[in-house]
Write a structure and sequence with these properties.
single chain; 490 residues; alpha/beta; eight-stranded mixed beta sheet; 26 strands
Length: 490
């Protein structure tokens, strides 16, 4: 076939005499055979053509702010928030909720050689991002059972990459699945896409292997279809899927309020947003473009457009995307079975390590190729009933992106944001602090500030403070040599 001949010819071009051993030749052949050459070429041509046809001004001419009937906010009514939360807890209690975690990223930018989800930002408890999220899952199951008498388990689907899957699975096993049942944690893997030179040739990582990179978090849909994730969701009776990224230390998972809001509005797709801190903040904005829902990257919006305001002086394009989404399984079925092939890769020009003409590995000093990526929010355009829920940044969004010491999105800023959140909860519940310092409340004690009044009302606390659940009740634990030393019972 043409496809086979293409693989064979490419393989023959790459093998130079006796340069490769027999094993290396086999590795090279398998690597080449794993690439759908015609599909890869089509994807490359489509994404390059899209970039050529879509200058910033053309995009801006077609932009419209989100219509009010698509927008909701947690700031309007506590009564409505509680109504939505109860709807979501009901959904959880009936076993209709799943979490979809995108955790393919390594901790390279943080200066560590392991997956980002294993990172501890410096909490007194020593907990990593995975453990914090696992305990939040347990708490929501508990709250659903308290509200409705019983609760089924929340299934947690975790998308890893080639570089993070084994380390992540091994870490969960070594930590006893963080108190959850192993059968309800399902790992799957996103695709590694060949890296391409600027003129469309596939780059080599070595003489016997192709240079590859993750296909972006939008590869989620292909991976869900190929690895049976959607099938498993449908078999388990899942209706509501809460999708998020691993690096947000404040993420509420699953969030019954968000789920309840989308169910109440009969939405097939939803997104949480935060108001931009300032007009030119480097965050994607959710808006309408050519009549479709879309996330427009900050680099695609001019300063003039970013500063536009409405009659009340509010920014027109203020809904900052925080990669926190809701999908129905019906919507995911439509995407995976009918629409995934319509998603066009985005182009990222990068300095990609490759080999020279004489086969030596080198890293270029300027971009030499592109990585093709799809984004999870590219599917918004296919929603028939879209909901945007505005939430409080200081309660729900503090991403870990940069290494220690960075001024923004660093371990220090994440630690401070979580500590400040927990201090607010205690003050709101009637507690008082005697001094300055860190505060940590285990998700098993409280997930959003609930049930704290009976613990802290009219009490004075010295910082650092760490509230944790033990066999004997709630304790103030202080981290001692990396472990939790449990001290005075509250």
């Amino acid at each position: 076939s043409i496809k086979y001949d293409g693989h064979k010819q490419w393989y023959q071009r790459r093998v130079r005499g006796d340069e490769l051993s027999s094993d290396e030749k086999d590795d090279l052949y398998r690597d080449i055979k794993s690439v759908d050459l015609s599909s890869h070429l089509r994807s490359f041509k489509k994404c390059m053509q899209k970039q050529k046809d879509s200058p910033t001004q053309t995009k801006e001419d077609n932009l419209q702010p989100l219509p009010q009937d698509a927008c909701e906010s947690v700031f309007i009514s506590n009564e409505t928030n509680e109504y939505w939360r109860n709807i979501g807890l009901k959904e959880i209690s009936e076993g209709k909720v799943a979490l979809l975690l995108m955790a393919g990223g390594q901790g390279t930018r943080l200066g560590v050689p392991y997956p980002k989800g294993m990172y501890n930002v410096g909490l007194q408890s020593g907990k990593c991002l995975y453990q914090i999220q696992a305990e939040r899952v347990q708490k929501q199951e508990q709250l659903a059972a308290e509200r409705y008498g019983s609760s089924k388990a929340i299934r947690w689907y975790i998308m890893t990459s080639e570089h993070t899957k084994k380390a992540t699975v091994d870490y969960f096993k070594a930590n006893g699945w963080f108190g959850l049942s192993e059968v309800n944690i399902i790992f799957f893997e996103q695709e590694m896409i060949p890296c391409t030179s600027l003129d469309g040739k596939i780059l080599m990582d070595s003489k016997h292997s192709i240079a590859r990179a993750p296909g972006g978090n939008g590869d989620l849909y292909r991976a869900m279809g190929n690895e049976g994730i959607l099938e498993d969701m449908l078999k388990k009776g899942i209706r509501s899927v809460h999708c998020y990224c691993v690096d947000n230390i404040l993420v509420k998972v699953p969030d019954p309020l968000f789920i309840g809001c989308c169910l109440d509005r009969q939405s097939d797709c939803g997104a949480k947003v935060v108001s931009k801190a300032y007009p030119t903040e480097a965050v994607g904005v959710i808006c309408e473009c050519n009549g479709n829902w879309k996330v427009v990257e900050y680099s695609e919006i001019s300063s003039e457009t970013a500063h536009m305001v409405d009659s009340e002086g509010k920014l027109l394009y203020s809904q900052g995307n925080i990669c926190n989404h809701y999908f129905t399984t019906d919507f995911l079925s439509k995407i995976i079975e009918k629409k995934e092939s319509e998603l066009i890769h985005h182009v990222a020009r990068k300095k990609i390590p490759t080999i020279s003409e004489i086969g030596e590995k080198f890293t270029p000093d300027k971009p030499n190729g592109i990585k093709m990526e799809k984004f999870v929010f590219d599917v918004f355009q296919f929603s028939e009933k879209f909901t945007v829920l505005e939430v409080a940044r200081n309660e729900e969004f503090s991403p870990l992106k940069n290494p220690p010491g960075a001024p923004k999105c660093s371990p220090e800023t994440c630690l401070e944001d979580l500590s400040n959140q927990h201090k607010r909860w205690i003050i709101r519940a009637g507690g008082t602090f005697k001094n300055e310092g860190l505060c940590e409340i285990s998700p098993l004690v409280s997930s959003h500030g609930e049930h704290l009044k009976e613990l802290v009302n009219d009490k004075f606390f010295s910082l650092p403070l760490h509230l944790e659940v033990t066999m004997n009740g709630y304790h103030n634990g202080h981290c001692v040599n990396g472990t939790n030393g449990l001290h005075s019972k509250l």
